[in-house]
Amino acid sequence: MVEEAADPTLGTSQHPPQLEQPETDPTDGKMRILIAEDERKIWKHLKAALQAEGYTAEVAEDGEEALWLAQNYPFDLLVLDLMLPERDGISVVRQLRRSGSRLPVLFLTGRADVEDRVRGLDAGADDYLGKPFSTQELLARVRALLRRQSPTLASRLRFEDIEMDLVARTVTRGSQRIDLTNREFELLRLLIEHAPNAVSKALILEKMWDRCFDSETALVNVHVNHLRQKLHLPGKPPLLQTIRGIGFALRPAPSASP
């Protein structure tokens, strides 16, 4: 049984390691939660509590690492401490929202001042919980946020000026129709559903071919290149990007970023 939350004053800040890929498998079907917390005793407690509920959990011990992981891997929720080294929680959530991320964010902090709560929510956080906290309340808030973000049966998907009609199975960019094969259509759908986060080659193989062998990543490269060529229209900025060491992502061109 997981104990109630530890006193946040008991943890010690640890300098985070170099940015690394998450240890958990994004294709295991479990909801994935990123914990951004620099106090080891607290994040270990959080991770154990979430894993006991059937979630997978990753930990970032500073704001830069949290932002990088949230932008490059498919998480379902971010539990974010306000006071982090390298980059504070307000800056992390603001940058996520500027990049187009809709990742739900639960602020978890010892600062109970109303002004701090308002700043966090105005920056783009979805909920707020102060330390010390009840583990049961934390888990209830996590469940509520995940329910709120459950996907609905939408008939259209959009990213920038790309629009997919899932019923008619058509794709347009601006006013121009783009003809895709069935495989390319499903690949674009997967990329839009995760945008602006990166989608790994392993996840693409798992979702589209029901395979998970590194030797077959060339198959992914071929289909991504075909899709990239079709999406790259004259006068339009490139949106399908290769993320070195990770996979692929739909992201706004640098010139179009705020």
What's the topology here?
Blueprint: E1 32-36, H1 40-52, E2 56-60, H2 63-72, E3 77-81, H3 89-98, E4 105-109, H4 114-123, E5 127-130, H5 135-148, E6 156-159, E7 162-165, E8 170-173, E9 176-178, H6 182-194, E10 199-200, H7 201-209, H8 217-231, E11 240-243, E12 247-250
Parallel strand pairs: 1-2, 1-3, 3-4, 4-5
Antiparallel strand pairs: 6-7, 7-8, 8-9, 10-12, 11-12
Summarize the structure.
The protein is of the alpha/beta class and 258 residues long. The chain has 8 helices and 12 strands.
Structure description:
It is a single chain. The longest helix has 15 residues, at 217-231. This protein folds into 2 domains: 8-148, Rossmann fold (3-Layer(aba) Sandwich), CATH 3.40.50.2300; 156-256, Arc Repressor Mutant, subunit A (Orthogonal Bundle). It is built from 8 helices and 12 strands. 36% of the residues lie in helices and 19% in strands. Strand 3, helix 3 and strand 4 form a beta-alpha-beta unit. InterPro entries: CheY-like_superfamily, OmpR/PhoB-type_DNA-bd, Sig_transdc_resp-reg_receiver, WalR-like, WH-like_DNA-bd_sf. The modification 4-aspartylphosphate is found at residue 81. GO terms for molecular function: phosphorelay response regulator activity; transcription cis-regulatory region binding. Residues 154-252 bind DNA.
